[in-house]
Design goal:
Pfam families: CHAP. This protein has 513 residues and is mainly beta. The chain is built from 3 helices and 39 strands.
Length: 513
């Protein structure tokens, strides 16, 4: 008996029950074809006489079909050679929520030769491209509208999320890296199960009896302390710092445990300013800074506490970049605000740093911002700043480095970037690295790609165990190496895989805790 979606008499010159065969059959039907009137087969999509999915993207381009990263109903969701054991993967997508979630109908998704469906969210695994060969008209949306924009306050151990309400909603679901972490009735959630120095993709959807809304997505990094209240390491001892006073007398206060006891010092009357862009920073000299945008939004003000007194400095009007991916960081030269600037046709970066001699603002040359779901600012171990992102068809990594005066850039060759959940950028002793899970269920491995002083290197671990999805994380160790830690077995064991990076290019032994 033929399985779902198959017409036994239909021959399209692809291997039976491969992803390409089922996708071509679906496209044939969408184009109005039948078993006798074939309108899509191998010759309609092949490139370089290849029947592998990895070549479909070029085949579509060769035939003048649109190729982009915008899924549409009936479009082909495509992955290149980083998937499918090097052969790629091609499936037909059903878009239910306007583009942030797709339902996939596929054969051979896990090399089983069987039919299956999956729901993919933009905050989790996502196609590397959409091929618009035989798109269908958009289906009407059901359920509530998408929640409003997500606002976050990030800390090393917690992320405080809030979002705009959606009318007629019964509840909201919060996903972290594609994993459901909460169902709430209100418009806030405190996620206390995060770690310092990680990158996470959050998606919030609204639900009612009519259906589920499109997802609202926010990518965050726990590389800094949000400016509500923060615990910080200083040269004099641990400190708790926060906003104090009230709306008519806005002040700051830090309480520090020094070698001689407790000390608490407040600023004078000041300005807390914009909620979305204010951060506490532990500076590299052991002092503390509170930085934020002020005025009309184009100036930066930093208050610095040295353990005894507060000082303040405000920049002239500068380009602070777009709000998404804007970051406030502690560098070797002082606190810096960095962001994406320019436009779609001239994509640049800009950093404005408060140095010992005053403010300095420097643009990069034209380049590429990279994929929104995979880009991050890092403070390197030498105190410089890097902006790293996936570029090209998604299988390359580009890092732009700012040393306080000038920018340099480097792009990797094609590499395995791993799966999107738990994929993260890390500052290692050898340079910025992108690390993730790779392989498949039957061969679970890890991969890190690092930009060293001698160029790019990519290293894959031996076969192991990814661990439980709710308890796994990448860490940068004090010596600059990288560890991937997770719960394994029945949940009572911890497993650590260490990577020493650089040209030594080896993964250390796994240790069960």
């Amino acid at each position: 008996m033929a399985q779902r979606g198959y017409e036994p008499a239909l021959t399209l010159n692809f291997n039976y029950r491969n992803c390409t065969d089922y996708a071509a059959r679906t496209l044939n039907r969408q184009l109005g074809g039948t078993t006798t009137d074939i309108r899509c087969n191998w010759s309609s999509i092949q490139s370089g006489n290849s029947d592998h999915a990895k070549d479909w993207r070029q085949g579509a381009i060769n035939r003048g079909k649109p190729v982009d990263n915008m899924p549409k109903r009936g479009a082909v969701a495509w992955w290149g050679a980083s998937h499918g054991g090097g052969y790629g993967h091609a499936i037909v997508a059903e878009v239910r929520d306007g583009g942030n979630t797709v339902v996939v109908h596929e054969y051979n998704g896990s090399n089983t030769g069987r039919f299956g469906t999956r729901t993919l969210m933009r905050s989790g695994e996502w196609p590397q491209a959409s091929l618009h060969i035989a798109d269908l008209p958009d289906a009407p949306l059901a359920g509530p509208a998408a929640p409003g924009a997500i606002t976050v306050l990030t800390h090393g151990s917690r992320v405080n999320l809030s979002w705009g309400a959606s009318a007629g909603t019964a509840d909201y679901q919060v996903y972290r890296d594609g994993l459901l972490v909460a169902t709430v009735g209100g418009t806030t959630h405190l996620d206390a199960h995060v770690l310092l120095g990680q990158s996470y993709n959050y998606t919030v959807v609204a639900r009612n009896s009519a259906g589920i809304s499109p997802g609202t997505v926010k990518r965050i990094s726990t590389n800094f302390e949000a400016a509500d209240r923060a615990y910080l390491p200083t040269k004099d001892g641990p400190a708790q710092c926060g906003r104090a006073g009230g709306q008519h007398y806005q002040a700051l206060v830090c309480t520090m445990h020094t070698s001689t006891g407790w000390s608490s010092v407040s600023t004078g009357h000041g300005d807390w300013e914009y909620l979305a862009d204010r951060r506490w920073l532990p500076n590299r000299d052991g002092t503390v800074s509170y930085c934020r945008r002020v005025g009309a939004g184009g100036q930066i003000m930093c208050d610095r506490f040295d353990g005894v007194t507060w000082t303040s400095s405000t920049s002239p009007n500068v380009d602070v970049g777009y709000p998404e991916d804007r970051a406030v960081l502690a560098t070797k030269d002082g606190p810096v605000l960095c962001g994406r600037a320019g436009g779609d046709n001239y994509q640049v970066l800009v950093c404005t740093v408060l140095t010992s001699t005053g403010w300095r603002s420097v643009y990069s040359g034209g380049g590429g911002w990279g994929y929104p779901a995979d880009r991050s600012w890092l403070v390197n171990r030498d105190g410089t700043v890097s902006y790293c992102a996936r570029v090209g068809d998604g299988g390359q990594v580009r890092c732009d480095r700012f040393d306080g005066t000038m920018w340099t850039s480097s792009t990797s060759p094609q590499v395995d970037v791993g799966y999107p959940d738990n994929r993260t950028y890390l500052a290692t002793k050898d340079g910025p690295a992108l690390c993730g899970r790779a392989g498949g269920q039957e061969w679970q491995v890890l991969v890190c790609t690092v930009l060293t002083p001698n160029g790019w290197t990519s290293v894959t671990s031996g076969r192991g165990d990814w661990g439980y999805g709710s308890d796994r994380a990448w860490l940068t160790n004090n010596d600059g190496s990288v560890s991937y830690c997770r719960r394994v077995g029945t949940g009572g064991n911890g497993l650590v895989t260490a990577w020493d990076g650089g040209d030594r290019g080896q993964c250390g032994p796994e240790r069960v805790l």
